[in-house]
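Most newcomers find our protein records easier to grasp once they have seen one. A learned vocabulary of local backbone shapes supplies the integers on the structure line. Here is such a record, shown just as it appears in the course material:
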Amino acid sequence: MKTEYVRHSSGRMFENDFLEAASKIHPVVPFVFYIPIVMGLLAWGLWSGTTTVGKIALFGVLGYLTWCFMEYTLHRNLFHWEGNGPLTRRFHAIIHGYHHTYPDDPQRLVMPLGASIPLAIVIGGLLWLVGRPDATIPYFCGIVVGYLVYDYLHWAVHYKKPWTNWGKALRAHHMAHHFACPDKNFGISHRWVDVLVGSMQVRGQAAREAAKQSTGGNTAE
């Protein structure tokens, strides 16, 4: 994937005015939409006796971890898949290429509801087919919470100056993905999956490898 980008700017994604408007979203919208759903499902599950506090703790954490792997897999294998034809490249441009070209567009730093709602319906529908609502309700809520953490942290690493060492490391991790090594550092709300699967790279390391490639590997260590 190319690393050409325009800083502190935005562009048009669609010619159609409705689609263009629908592709933009205020960062607070996903939280306003999904937090009441999560709280309502968990409250109903406890009130009706469908699930328990212990199962919420267990399967909620499992759902959160599931999102971490989903985030990594979607980013690496779908968002960065460009295909070979104009349709697949247009698909790539819409779902992720635009963000790499205009990384600072504040209205496109979280997933629009038009994309997240169908994904939530598919996941929720599959879990409903499984049955066992005592486990699948908190598991689904854990996935949604993981998604919201991802949305917030992706917005934060682009839009806010970090004030903790962890935040600085997470921001450096993602900025390296954007501006130095787009084929590395696919985790956004975390770094541990990149470490686990061997796709972790720091910005200095990426620069050194680029220098080696440009000189045929004959740079001084």
The CA atoms of residues 62 and 139 lie 6 Å apart. DSSP finds nine helices and no strands in the chain. The two ends are 27 Å apart (CA to CA). Residues 213-221 have pLDDT under 50 and may be disordered.
